[in-house]
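Hi V.,

Quick status before I head out on leave. The structure for the redesign project is tokenized and pasted below; the design run finished overnight.
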């Protein structure tokens, strides 16, 4: 005799069935059938198609950035060559990084820049969800962060922030993670990064800054067109953040060779047109040089 539990999820994942009293996990089955028969039938059932992410609003030019800051217990330790704890060094580095946004906005007020700030330890706390850049609000949120404690839920933080990026209204979307350790709680950042790459069709770029930890711990990012840079101390952390934020994210936002997708690509149809609308199409004249 056997019993089956069919579990449905709200995220369009494949149905799974778990058998109590047996050692096998099968896609589907029926009491009275052997495990071999059920497994044979399971092999013929196609996997559910994974849905593309769909923006919750019309998208245009500009950039949306979610900054994810490690606030786990290890950030209480001192940074290399610095008497201050790592969390204080990281906050100062992010403050300095955001200063470059002020000059960008002053030069290009027509290009919207959205920034969100999230802290993660055992749980993920959105301090400021992705919205139009507000330097004062971000500075206050950084200053008000509690002392570090708990585990390191990197993957969960990526998942939460990714959802907010699809509410921000820009084609360009970025996750910027600052962490000093490996994931110890919740979803694996590798699994989340791979899922984001698939379901966003590359529309979400992922950057990690490995602060006082070996960068090769996040080498999986290369497979999803992401990037990880190391930072062994406070000076290196500032340089790494500047390299990513000003040298890549803001620089890409200045690209005037972008055009809005055609009206057909903006329809929200079952074929995933909303996901196609998140693809930035270069203008054919954007890279022509004057004679």
């Amino acid at each position: 005799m056997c019993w089956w539990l069919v579990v449905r999820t709200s995220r369009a994942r494949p149905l799974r069935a778990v058998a109590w009293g047996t050692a096998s996990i099968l896609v589907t089955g029926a009491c009275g059938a052997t495990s071999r028969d059920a497994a044979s039938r399971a092999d013929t059932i196609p996997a559910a198609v994974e849905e593309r992410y769909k923006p919750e609003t019309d998208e245009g030019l500009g950039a949306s950035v979610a900054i994810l800051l490690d606030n786990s217990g290890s950030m209480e330790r001192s940074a290399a060559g610095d008497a201050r704890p790592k969390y204080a060094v990281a906050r100062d580095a992010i403050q300095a990084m955001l200063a470059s946004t002020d000059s960008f906005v002053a030069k290009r007020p027509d290009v919207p820049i959205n920034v969100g700030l999230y802290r993660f330890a055992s749980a993920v706390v959105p301090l400021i969800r992705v919205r139009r850049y507000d330097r004062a609000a971000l500075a206050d949120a950084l200053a008000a962060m509690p002392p570090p404690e708990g585990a390191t839920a990197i993957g969960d933080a990526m998942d939460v922030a990714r959802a907010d990026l699809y509410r921000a209204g820009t084609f360009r979307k970025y996750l910027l993670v600052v962490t000093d350790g490996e994931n110890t709680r919740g979803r694996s950042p590798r699994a989340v990064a791979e899922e984001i790459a698939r379901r966003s069709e590359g529309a979400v770029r992922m950057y990690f800054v490995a602060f006082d930890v070996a960068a090769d711990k996040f080498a999986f990012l290369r497979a999803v067109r992401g990037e990880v840079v190391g930072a062994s101390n406070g000076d290196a952390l500032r340089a790494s953040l500047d390299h990513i934020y000003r040298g890549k994210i803001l620089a890409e936002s200045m690209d005037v060779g972008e055009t809005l997708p055609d009206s057909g690509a903006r329809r929200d149809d079952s074929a995933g047109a909303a996901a196609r609308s998140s693809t930035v199409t270069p203008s054919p004249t954007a890279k022509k040089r004057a004679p």
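Above is the designed sequence. The first strand starts at residue 3 and ends at 7.

G. will cover questions while I'm gone.

Best,
W.
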